[in-house]
Design brief:
Strand content: 5-15%
CATH topology of the largest domain: Butyryl-CoA Dehydrogenase, subunit A, domain 3
Strand order of the largest sheet: 1-4-5-8
Order of helices and strands: HHHHHEEEEEEEEHHEEHHHH
Number of helices: 11
Bound molecules: flavin-adenine dinucleotide
Number of strands: 10
Distance between the termini: 50 Å
CATH architecture of the largest domain: Up-down Bundle
Number of domains: 3
Length: 395
């Protein structure tokens, strides 16, 4: 405990000396650095901050030192995160490589794969895309059809993936591919890493109603993939895919903790937009909703705390399975509550008639819904909780 206290003091000093002032403020999407061959830094200070954190091994503090990570224990990593949060230090590097692929490579990859990919992820050299969903395989992921044929010294990949987030900005894609069509569907899937610069890989951005285009459809047309890019065993990719989804859902459960700029908290918004009488919010319905939301958030925080303690003590817990559903639904509830509190001030999408904070809050309301779909929809999460946590009989 004493060591941990000393570690906290050292971290505090180091952050004080190394985190530029401009990197100690809440950030919006335009302030994030995602690395990769085409990655650009949002500012010179963001570059300096990233490089200092990278050299310290703290872009991913818990990963092993032999691959360039910080080698911190979960307790030390928690201290680092809380010290960063205290001064509002920005996350220096974002990426699906950090959140999803890296943990899967560390668990299932060969030594050569770890040497090749973990370093590159930590150093921000590669940006990864996720190639799971297909036009006919979303919730029912195991029905995927994109196929990889064994050609002796390589795989030949043909097919398509959809909803590939930032596919047109990524260097590599981790894909689930069908390698055996003649067995139970989960048993004929493999996990393959594909360089998106390889001949035959193309991406087409998908236009969204917002006018933006953050997703792509990715096509594979006779793409030759080296055999050494297979993670885990042939036809055993479903296990790797599920392990990776656990990391993805953990991340989703924590969404909102890295709060973007200008976003209001419901209790702050209530003071700004609602009427009070004798210290009480006059609208009884909104008053109840606020109290309910507050109780929910306290329960979520306590459950995160419990999960951390259980993990640190080697206790298996069902909580992480529940938290993707709870965390993303809570974010949706928060956004809806904020809009209800803001009334007509919560209807601004752009322009001078609304403050930047109001516009960001309305936009976050739209975004909050997608997280209840990405990484497995809420309905699918409820099915999983019913089967695996509550062990209810299946219909
Ligand atoms: C923001 C965002 C980012 C994403 N990024 C990526 C990415 O980078 N890479 C990638 O591969 N995919 C990505 N996806 C796709 C995501 O994984 C799928 O959207 C998700 O798995 C749902 O699949 P679907 O869209 O095909 O919906 P469907 O599976 O067609 O589901 C439609 C509706 O039916 C419901 N439903 C389906 N089956 C059941 C059932 N058995 N019981 C009850 N209800 C059911 C669902 O809950 C949903 O409401 C992303 C999605 C979003 C929203």
């Amino acid at each position: 405990m004493e060591d941990l206290d000393q570690f906290g003091l050292d971290v505090r000093d180091w952050l004080e000396a190394n985190c530029p002032t401009s990197q100690r403020q809440p950030m919006g999407p335009e302030d994030q650095y995602w690395g990769g061959r085409r990655g650009t830094f949002p500012s010179e200070d963001a570059k300096v901050w990233f490089e200092r954190m990278r050299d310290k091994g703290w872009t991913v503090p818990e990963w092993p030192t032999q691959y360039g990570g910080g080698g911190l224990t979960p307790q030390q990593s928690k201290v680092l995160k809380s010290e960063m949060k205290r001064i509002q230090a920005r996350t220096p590097l974002y990426g699906l490589g950090i959140w999803m692929l890296g943990p899967a490579v560390l668990e299932y990859g060969t030594e050569k794969q770890k040497q090749q990919h973990i370093h590159a992820i930590l150093n921000g050299e590669t940006r990864w895309a996720q190639g799971y969903s297909e036009p006919g395989a979303g919730s029912d992921l195991a029905s995927l059809q994109c196929k990889a044929e064994d050609m002796g010294d390589h795989f030949l990949v043909n097919g398509t993936k959809i909803w590939t987030t930032a596919g047109d900005k990524c260097d590599w894609i981790f894909c689930l591919v069908r390698t055996d069509p003649n067995v139970k569907k989960q048993e004929g899937i493999s996990f393959l890493l594909i360089d998106m610069d390889d001949p035959g890989v193309t991406t087409t951005p998908i236009a969204l109603i917002s006018g933006e285009s953050e997703f792509c459809q990715t096509f594979f047309d006779n793409v030759k993939v080296p055999k050494e890019n297979l993670i885990g065993e042939l036809n055993k990719g479903w296990s790797v895919a599920k392990a990776l989804l656990v990391h993805e859902r953990k991340l989703m459960a924590e969404i909102g903790s890295d709060s973007p700029r200008h976003i209001l908290q419901p209790n702050v918004a209530a003071r700004e937009y609602l009427e009070f009488e004798n210290g009480k919010i006059t609208d009884a319905r909104l008053r109840d909703d606020l109290v309910e939301y507050d109780m929910l958030m306290q329960a979520v925080a306590l459950t995160h705390f419990r999960t951390f303690e259980e993990k640190s003590n080697g206790v298996r817990s069902a909580a992480p399975m529940v938290m993707k559903y709870v965390g993303t639904e809570a974010e949706k509830t928060k956004s809806e509550l904020l809009l209800a509190i803001m009334g007509s001030r919560g209807m601004g999408w752009e322009g001078d008639g609304f403050t930047p904070q109001e516009i960001d809050t309305t936009r976050l309301w739209a975004t909050s819904k997608v997280m209840t779909i990405a990484g497995g929809s809420s309905e699918i999460q409820l099915n999983l909780i019913a089967q695996k946590v509550l062990e209810l009989p299946q219909r």
